[in-house]
Amino acid sequence: MVKPVSTGKMAANPAETVQPAVLYKLIIFAVLMAVAPIGTYFIVLTYFTKGNTIAAAIAAIIAANLVLIGYIVVAWLEGPPGPIVPPSPAGEVKKNK
């Protein structure tokens, strides 16, 4: 019988591996992906092209691609996660030697 072998990442509690900053970035870019192209479309349609829907659609496509590129750049520049330090018991105090 074969026993499965787990690595340290797989054995770790998933709640310990989730970083709040990553989740916040994902939420921000998801909202931007929904708002930026639609907003760009209507702003360009109303104020810049006076009804030219093709130019407004092209501007919306460019806005969507800029949001995607921004997300990729932010993800690329994000450093690797630091080591996960287990919390120490409440009564334990470190002593310097």
Automatic annotation (TrEMBL):
Q: What does the UniProt entry say about where the protein is found?
A: Endoplasmic reticulum membrane; Endoplasmic reticulum-Golgi intermediate compartment membrane; Cytoplasmic vesicle, COPII-coated vesicle membrane
Which keywords has UniProt assigned to this entry? Cytoplasmic vesicle, Endoplasmic reticulum, Membrane, Transmembrane, Transmembrane helix
Membrane topology reported for the UniProt record: Multi-pass membrane protein
Is Endoplasmic reticulum found in the keyword set?
yes
Question: Which residue windows are transmembrane per the record?
Answer: 26-48, 55-77
GO CC, one annotated term: ER to Golgi transport vesicle membrane
Instruction: Name its GO BP terms in alphabetical order.
Output: vacuolar proton-transporting V-type ATPase complex assembly
Give the main location: endoplasmic reticulum
Instruction: Determine if Transcription is one of this entry's keywords.
Output: no
A Pfam cross-reference name = VMA21
Query: Which family does the similarity line name?
Result: Belongs to the VMA21 family.
Q: What does this protein do?
A: Required for the assembly of the V0 complex of the vacuolar ATPase (V-ATPase) in the endoplasmic reticulum.
Which PANTHER family does the record cross-reference, listed alphabetically? VACUOLAR ATPASE ASSEMBLY INTEGRAL MEMBRANE PROTEIN VMA21
Know the name of this protein? Vacuolar ATPase assembly integral membrane protein VMA21
User: Organism source for this protein?
Assistant: Kwoniella europaea PYCC6329
